């Protein structure tokens, strides 16, 4: 780990300005992702701006009937919030399916959205990785790719965005709120927040230099049955091979996003009219452009079968 | 003391202390943080510096040059060790690859330098500045591709044959052939490898995490080229080893070299992401099993072949070992072939040989039972043997495999099982049960101890035996207490120091029986010395309730050593009972799994192990060993795999996020039953090993249960959902 300097943020706008101004600056929130990466030399910030003192840790009702979640709200608190559990059960379930109790106590809303990939080669600084070292190549393509993307990847990178929370937020049409270095705020729909890798896999979101997430808003609840189904080899404390986040209405219509399959939560509104026709037809549309590797082709089948179980559950048909 | 005739009645048989389910006496130290592990010996080695290892970024080749300029200038740096600066180093008897690489690189993450600095963080930062220029050469990393070039290994019983296997197999009424693969496994113990080294003149003290103190001291001396007497190893507590700490690793050697170079004590630990490729692992295998039988299920031919790989000079995984002994059959063969692979060093991991071998054999037995239309429990029982099938003159000392299977079947309600696979459903779960036999040989090793009775009437035991979380402290205290008629709280046990008498160490499940037998031998001598001191006849002196009694006379042990400690030292050595009798441990594993009908996720619902492993010295610590082993078996069955990048030549998933081991949520209630058994051929303790037995067969029982639940047979471990999905019933 390289030596770094450290400051405590005093206000969101000041933090954003400081981050834009200071060479090699990074925000730190819960630190559960950033510190791990610093210890192994994948992240090498020269300056840390600690956000933990900022008063961005509340969950409040919005005027249009939704919720605003502060960037620093801990995953544990968000999952336990009564309003979230009642109106956005999907989000609560997705959070609780992730990491461990200890990690969720530290992890924050913004940090979770920005957590980096779990591609094994990304973690090994001896190996080529375009995401870690732009232009160095991608060791995963042609290598061990069982856990990697089947859709949305590129010839430069097939990494998966591993957040469970983000998949739920994608289905809930969340909006990411930020403040930029010049003090301007903006609202970024979650659909636009994460980028596909293309030729620049190291650029993972549309955030600009210094831009700070202040919170995430959820529009007013849409009702329906909220299901988050995460599939993994190990019963707990593992990232998703595939996850399905769904809100299904009584008439069989609904929204679905997949986790574990792409560089961002994978949802296609254009496919959703097919949902009432069942998992097979819907998945065929949602994953029509999938280009899996030999090692992860099973994810396409798995996504369909998991969705099948989700739709059965929504119908109240347990088996 | 020599053990060369079967044990008769002795003081251990009183079972006042031995055989009781005592809590671990080291437990409170561990739960209060007062048990200091190797890397925590700050008081013993004050003011130590920290070393950080630089590891090779290529799997095979040569170092062309190392640029240390920037690292040397980094803050806090005290010294840098490389193969060039270290001077001539030997290689330990138990090491295949050099612990400090350069100029030749033998495997990925082989250590190539150590940076010593004032703090850990400074050492790590400076290590990142060491620039190594490599010339990479091509290597072999794919076992499947290397099979064709595999050769017969030298030192092992590579080929065995009895009768006419080929003829009997060809002529058998029912035959079965299966091919199975097991992946490379990592020990993944909790405590990383760690050492602190300190030199006083030419004498080295090494606090380290090592299972085998005498081997370790010897190999450190050999590697450094110093006399063995000048090396002291101290390992009072070890946070798990599973075979990964049988041998000296780079942390120990580099701590010693770093301390020499920095003229300061130096602490070195292996960061978790280094452990997987820097140290050893259980090698992958490809296995072929052929079984021929009569229609009624009597095996007439059994053949088992195994291919594995290792670095040049390495050894095969002896995956065929159990097949020579487990089932009857007049015509038999086994064969091992070893390929050269340039992956990290393959070596022992818990139940080496049997663990991998039974993963294959016990699926094959299930498949054959299927083919015969027989119950898999009955098929195994039908082919029991009470003698070594290769040498019928040679009986087993004790063999209760059949009793294990029957007891287990009863407890598990096996007879309610519907034989046809894929017949039971519970909501979203397809439910199935599986069985496998457990088998692991019992080994006895020479083991010594020193015992001392002091003026307060307390007894101190010293032996270089290690407690790797197994319970050695406790069973050794129980042994001494039983021998001397004292309560266990009057016994102090000191372990893991090479200045103590050489013990068996912890490995191959020999440690429990062997080390307590060594303590028994020393206690026999101490009893004699005490009796003599009191003018009693040692032969009729009875040690009981804190007293020693002979005829009418009773003396308290508290007074005997008032004039000075009474000390006795001895070892237990073994004659040829192990040759005349086949000593093995047996068990049966029963498992129920649920497989998600949609996602094919596998979750274990019930586990039962029935073990017959001689006298159980402490049912509580023994049970802990077995449930831990069952958990490890669940990992082997369902998730553990070092993923090989066959192009780049290394284990890709080299941290505990990528190398998954079971978590609590994976493990249901585990039931363990020990059959009542004493084995008079094993030692005066009449005990045998149990810590590895618990692992043997577990994975196959789970794989068999998955087959029973789904009808899908997976022959390549781990059994993960992607291998089932293609054959799972359609969801409509
Ligand atoms: C062992 C383990 C298992 C895990 N398992 C799962 C799992 O199953 N599912 C899952 O979804 N996650 C899992 N995680 C990931 C976990 O959810 C993330 O580590 C956590 O959410 C990150 O939040 P943090 O606040 O600690 O982020 P930090 O580590 O503090 O920051 C992460 C990144 O976000 C940036 N950042 C933080 N706050 C802001 C802000 N307000 N504005 C702009 N940038 C910001 C930081 O600069 C940094 O780049 C696991 C993590 C671990 C260590
Ligand atoms: S998939 Fe992406 S993260 Fe993984 S090695 Fe390739 S470039 Fe790096």
Description of the molecule:
The complex is a heterodimer of chains A (319) and B (732). The longest helix of chain A has 17 residues, at 298-314. Chain A has helices at 12-21, 34-39, 75-80, 82-87, 89-96, 101-106, 109-113, 164-171, 190-193, 279-286, 298-314, and strands at residues 5-8, 25-28, 47-50, 59-61, 67-70, 175-179, 185-189, 212-218, 225-231, 242-248, 254-259. In chain A, the strands form 3 sheets. A 5-stranded antiparallel beta sheet of chain A has the order 4-5-8-6-7. Chain A is built from 11 helices and 11 strands. In chain B, helix 17 (619-638) crosses helix 18. Chain B starts with a strand and ends in a 7-residue tail after the last helix. Chain A binds chain B through residues 1-3, 39-41, 118, 120-121, 123-124, 126-127, 139, 142-144, 146, 229, 231-239, 241, 279, 298, 301-302, 305-306, 308-309, 312, 318-319, and chain B through 57-58, 75, 121, 124-125, 128, 271, 273, 425, 427-428, 596-601, 603, 638-639, 643, 645, 647-648, 652-655, 657-658, 660, 662-666, 718, 720-722, 725-726, 728, 731. The structure holds flavin-adenine dinucleotide and iron/sulfur cluster. Iron/sulfur cluster binds at residues 117, 119, 121-122, 129-131, 138-140, 148, 157-159, 201 of chain A.
Distance between the termini of chain B: 72 Å
Helix content of chain A: 25-40%
Nearest-integer average pLDDT of chain B: 97
Biggest protein-protein contact in the assembly: A-B, 40 and 45 residues
Helix-strand category of chain B: alpha+beta
- Multimer state: heterodimer
| Parts with pLDDT < 50 across at least 5 consecutive residues of chain B | none
- Strands across the major sheet of chain B, in which order? 4-6-2-13-10-11-12
Give start-end ranges of low-pLDDT stretches of chain A: none
The coarse overall form of chain B would be globular
Please describe the biggest sheet of chain A, giving its number of strands, its sense, and whether it closes into a barrel: 5 strands, antiparallel
Radius of gyration of chain A: 19 Å
Mean pLDDT over all positions of chain A = 97
Rg measurement of chain B, Å: 27 Å
User: Could you tell me the strand content of chain B as a percent range?
Assistant: 25-35%
| Shape assignment of chain A | globular
- Strands of chain B, total number: 30
Bound molecules: flavin-adenine dinucleotide, iron/sulfur cluster
